């Protein structure tokens, strides 16, 4: 035995494995087996003392590195800062060669049991398993299994109850959903009304404290004021746009994308709208679930939907500013009818995409998450369900498919360029209209207008409408308005058909049937 231990350079768990195997091998020789059993029991005492401390209290006291669980020095605070930090996976790991062969099947549960208790202990709670019993070596594995199972069940319940009840995990997730998945409608109307002008500026010109103040105002003015965690919501101006962020996460390495990823953020001039996102302050131990990796995924979903909402608002603003078209002549009206039809098609597309993402992807997936969290028996289940929720949302919102995302981005760009073009055109109409309006205003200090003044004003309005219509005709002829609108129409239709074709292919090949809903819309 001593020679075998020496030749195998065994220590700790590997020594117990060798002794355990030898004990079994001497089944026909009672004296030799009894001797081996005695030696194994004696050798296992210090190892089982470390094991008991781990599974009953979540503490490792292993000065000679003999135990099956190894501790690594990682700071839990970094979970909030580093996307790639894997505190939960890497703080404690199993050392395979130190697992005694008779505990091999229970290795994962032993690791999880101590990890669960360790989290609660790091929150300042002293936890001790009430069903703790001394672990003694025996040839009957069932004795170990029962003791470890009891310790595991206790540790799972303690941590789960601690996170769910005392730390209100579900309430925090619901709060994040309100803001990042945009289900708090009136808050976003207030917020976008307040910040629209500020977010149009280049990102370097935006005063973050001003945005923070406007966010605070929007929160207080809306139903979000009742949210107890609203103060954890913060403004974050990202150094890159959504596409670049997604390429970084997906690690796509084409030449063009490498250039985008490696570009200095200062080289890319972002507007506030392109750089804007929310961030959320998460404290330990909730940061185990809502870590930086999860928050980054929430941010990607938010930025995607926020930009869609911005495009929708721009298209609605075009509709408001185009009311002057009622005064145009029949000749120019037919060209404007084409522009208005295109605007409505764009608006229908953007609204349908938003409806699909919010009510056919996020809401059903969220309800599944809530249901699964109620049934979860341990923290690993919670982590798994939350990750699945975010993965499904990203996938069904086309954010994990670069090809679909690029086509969608082109569609959004066409919509934005169209709204800018229409706003410039109607702005020139408004300038003439404003000049005429000043001549039609009646001095209120002189009292109500007389019949003659009313008749004169009506005549002037008719003349103004006629001049405005003629101006529209001239502007239409000189600016190539018809050709411009036709080009927008052609580009929009091409990209839209391309998107629908690709969606059809991906939904069929990858069995992603939820994406078919976009086509049916």
TrEMBL record:
Family of this protein: Belongs to the TUBGCP family.
Subunit and interaction comment: Component of the gamma-tubulin ring complex (gTuRC) consisting of TUBGCP2, TUBGCP3, TUBGCP4, TUBGCP5 and TUBGCP6 and gamma-tubulin TUBG1 or TUBG2. TUBGCP2, TUBGCP3, TUBGCP4, TUBGCP5 and TUBGCP6 assemble in a 5:5:2:1:1 stoichiometry; each is associated with a gamma-tubulin, thereby arranging 14 gamma-tubulins in a helical manner. Gamma-tubulin at the first position is blocked by TUBGCP3 at the last position, allowing 13 protafilaments to grow into a microtubule.
Subcellular localization(s) per the UniProt record: Cytoplasm, Cytoskeleton, Microtubule organizing center, Centrosome
Alphabetized Pfam families for the sequence: GCP_C_terminal (PF04130), GCP_N_terminal (PF17681)
Gene Ontology MF, one: gamma-tubulin binding
InterPro entries xref list: GCP, GCP_C, GCP_C_sf, GCP_N
UniProt keyword annotation of Lipid metabolism present: no
Residue stretches making up the Gamma tubulin complex component protein N-terminal domain: 3-166
Keywords tagged on the record: Cytoplasm, Cytoskeleton, Microtubule
Main location: cytoplasm
UniProt superkingdom: Eukaryota
One GO term of the biological process aspect: meiotic cell cycle
Purpose of the protein: Component of the gamma-tubulin ring complex (gTuRC) which mediates microtubule nucleation. The gTuRC regulates the minus-end nucleation of alpha-beta tubulin heterodimers that grow into microtubule protafilaments, a critical step in centrosome duplication and spindle formation. Plays a role in neuronal migration.
UniProt domain Gamma tubulin complex component C-terminal: residue ranges: 169-520
The protein's name: Gamma-tubulin complex component
GO cellular component terms, A-Z: centrosome; gamma-tubulin complex; microtubule; spindle pole
């Amino acid at each position: 035995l001593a020679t075998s231990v020496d030749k195998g350079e065994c220590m700790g768990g590997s020594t117990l494995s060798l002794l355990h195997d030898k004990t079994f091998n001497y089944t026909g020789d009672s004296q030799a087996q009894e001797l081996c059993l005695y030696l194994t029991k004696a050798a296992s005492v210090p190892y089982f003392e470390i094991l008991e401390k781990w599974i009953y209290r979540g503490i490792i006291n292993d000065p000679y590195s003999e135990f099956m669980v190894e501790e690594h020095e990682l700071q839990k605070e970094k979970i909030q800062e580093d996307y790639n930090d894997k505190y939960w996976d890497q703080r404690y790991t199993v050392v395979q060669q130190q697992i005694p062969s008779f505990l091999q099947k229970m290795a994962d549960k032993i690791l999880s049991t101590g990890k669960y208790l360790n989290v609660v202990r790091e929150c300042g709670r002293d936890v001790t398993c009430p069903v703790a019993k001394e672990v003694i070596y025996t040839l009957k594995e069932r004795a170990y299994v029962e003791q470890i199972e009891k310790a595991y069940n206790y540790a799972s319940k303690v941590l789960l109850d601690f996170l769910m009840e005392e730390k209100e995990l579900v309430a925090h997730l619901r709060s994040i959903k309100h803001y990042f998945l945009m289900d708090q409608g009136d808050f976003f109307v207030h917020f976008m009304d307040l910040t629209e002008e500020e977010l149009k500026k280049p990102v370097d010109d935006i005063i973050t404290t001003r945005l923070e103040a406007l966010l605070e105002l929007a929160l207080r003015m809306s139903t979000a004021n009742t949210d107890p965690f609203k103060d954890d919501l913060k403004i974050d101006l990202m150094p890159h746009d959504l596409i670049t962020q997604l390429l970084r996460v997906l690690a796509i390495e084409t030449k063009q994308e490498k250039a985008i990823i490696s570009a200095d953020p200062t080289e890319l001039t972002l507007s506030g709208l392109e750089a804007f996102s929310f961030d959320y302050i998460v404290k330990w131990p909730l940061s185990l679930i809502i870590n930086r990796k999860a928050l980054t995924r929430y941010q990607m979903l938010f930025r995607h939907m926020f930009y869609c909402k911005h495009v929708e608002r721009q298209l609605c603003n075009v509709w408001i500013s185009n009311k002057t078209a009622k005064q145009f002549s029949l000749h120019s009206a037919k060209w404007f009818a084409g522009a208005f039809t295109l605007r409505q098609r764009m608006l229908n597309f953007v609204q349908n995409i938003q409806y699909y993402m919010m009510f056919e992807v996020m809401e059903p997936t969220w309800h599944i998450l809530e249901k699964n969290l109620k049934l979860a028996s341990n923290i690993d289940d919670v982590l798994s369900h939350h990750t699945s929720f975010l993965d499904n949302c990203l996938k069904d919102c086309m954010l994990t498919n670069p090809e679909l995302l690029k086509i969608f981005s082109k569609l959004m760009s066409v919509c934005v360029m169209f709204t800018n073009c229409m706003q410039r055109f109607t702005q020139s109409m408004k300038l003439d209209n404003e000049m005429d309006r000043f001549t039609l205003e009646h001095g209120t200090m002189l009292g109500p207008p007389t019949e003659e003044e009313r008749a004169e004003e009506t005549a002037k309005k008719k003349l103004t409408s006629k001049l405005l219509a003629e101006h529209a005709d001239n502007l239409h002829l000189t600016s190539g308005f018809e050709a411009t609108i036709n080009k927008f129409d052609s580009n929009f239709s091409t990209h839209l058909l391309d998107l629908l074709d690709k969606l059809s292919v991906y939904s069929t090949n990858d069995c992603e049937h939820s994406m078919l809903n976009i086509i049916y819309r």
